[in-house]
Amino acid sequence: MKRLLALLLALCLLCGCSAKPVTAQGFAMDTILSVSLYQGGSQALAQEALSLADEAEARLSCHREGTEISRLNQEGCATLSPETAELLAFCLDMYAASSGALDIGLGGVSALWDFSAEQPSLPEESALLEALSHAGADGLRLDGNEATLLDPCMQLDLGAVAKGALADDMAALLRERGVTSFLLNLGGCLYLSGGKDGEPFRVGVEDPRQSGSMLGVLYLTEGAVSTSSGAQRGFTLDGVRYHHILDPKTGYPADAGLLSVTVVCPSGLLADALSTACFVLGEEGAAALLAQFPQASALLLLEDGSLRVLGSLDFEPA
Ligand code: AMP
Ligand code: MG
After folding, report:
1. Pocket lining: 167 vs ligand 1, CB cutoff 6 Å
2. Cα 177 to middle of ligand 1, angstroms
């Protein structure tokens, strides 16, 4: 929570707000969400954009009873809304494109980890292996809006993509209503549109090694910025850090030599999916994945502290 507040504060400072934006804040998807409208819009519209988060959570959460995903997890088949079906189809494509690194079928495994427990502990190895044997998003079949889990023990978890999808939905609403300059901050996923005061937005990229300090500044007029990092959620036990981004090959936190991945691209959903997948894949795999998506670029922080840019980014290191 402290880390999120620091990030919000840092963003606000970097944005150096001259004209006062219309702002609204909320909490959903286990994170603080904020909407800032710089040109056009109203308080009511900012709130309406925020309310899309509750709608998305009511469809997509695997932690709440009665959502589309929970019904699918419990019953093994479900008729989905067109929006949810489209999102799952995208996730299947990304599962294939990332050679399984982005696996929304990991829900049974992620449920065994409690990264926010007051007294954290490791899952039982045997339970982890059992859950892992039911993972693999290719066990999800989609026929239009009808979804079936071929292995009924597979459980879906959309945590890696839900915020990015929400960012796109919020951005579409704001554009449709004529807002020409806005900033959405959904925790690890930002969406910026229209620049600010005729200049690109300045986005601070947080250094995961030290809360409140920055790796540098990205200059961006339009698009999404998604960061995946082991620092965002996790615990340290006996001197070892266990974080929330899991390697589908092992069921344990991904350990591919990266401390954080920040992806910039026009779509929030793609940025969110790619940042998680790249974190799991490591530097080489991330480069190969990004090569399939020329509209996306990434900033990697390697374990040795060096930075690597994939694609083209307007980035100024600190
Ligand atoms: P993100 O913060 O977008 O990188 O997504 C991390 C979240 O996605 C975790 O909290 C889990 O809910 C879920 N997750 C963890 N590992 C994976 C993975 N390899 N593929 C898909 N989802 C994952
Ligand atoms: Mg993600």
Report:
1. no
2. 32
Ligand 2 centre to CA of 262 (Å) is 10
- Other beta carbons within 10 angstroms of residue 192's beta carbon come to 26
Is pLDDT above 60 for 11?
no
* Average pLDDT estimate for 282-305: 98
Cβ–ligand 1 distance for 134 under 6 Å, the answer no
Question: What mean pLDDT, rounded, does the chain reach?
Answer: 94
Q: How far is CA 51 from CA 45, 64, 69, 264, in A?
A: 10, 17, 19, 25
Q: Ligand 1 pocket, 169 CB below 6 A?
A: no
CB 53 within 8 A of CB 37: no
CA distance 191 to 171: 7
- Taking the complete model, does pTM exceed 0.85, yes or no? yes
Q: Which helix (H) or strand (E) holds 227?
A: strand 223-229
User: Read out DSSP for 54-117?
Assistant: HHHHHHH-SSSTTSHHHHHHHHSEEEPPHHHHHHHHHHHHHHHHTTTSS-TTBHHHHTT--TT-
Whether 100 lines ligand 1, by a CB cut-off of 6 Å, is no
Alpha carbon nearest to ligand 1 atom 22, residue: 160
* Per-residue confidence (pLDDT) for residue 5, from 0 to 100: 43
Domains, the chain, ordered by start: 60-149 (1.10.3980.10)
